[in-house]
Prior knowledge:
alpha+beta
Amino acid sequence: xxxxxxxxxxxxxxxxxxxxxxxxxxxxxxxxxxxxxxxxxxxxxxxxxxxxxxxxxxxxxxxxxxxxxxxxxxxxxxxxxxxxxxxxxxxxxxxxxxxxxxxxxxxxxxxxxxxxxxxxxxxxxxx
Length: 127
């Protein structure tokens, strides 16, 4: 079973995900901090991630995903929406964007407050 490795300045999480699982569903299964303001229905861009390894093994982008990515910040050639990209047969490494991490914290204020109290929010920037 392929593994999805989620990285951010706050986390390093690896999840086993059957082929056909969206990156967002894998993130939720592993408690990775990927935001999804619209609930994962491709109506926003808050689940925007950068795929560092395994990009070619993910499902193909459709027009709707490409249109939504136009709304995202710091879009790169490796950008995907977690709600749309489906795991293939290979392992994948995903970096959670600042945009997605911020959306996650906005959706989970108790977790954000705990990180603030511990001096871990906001995190250092990464690229």
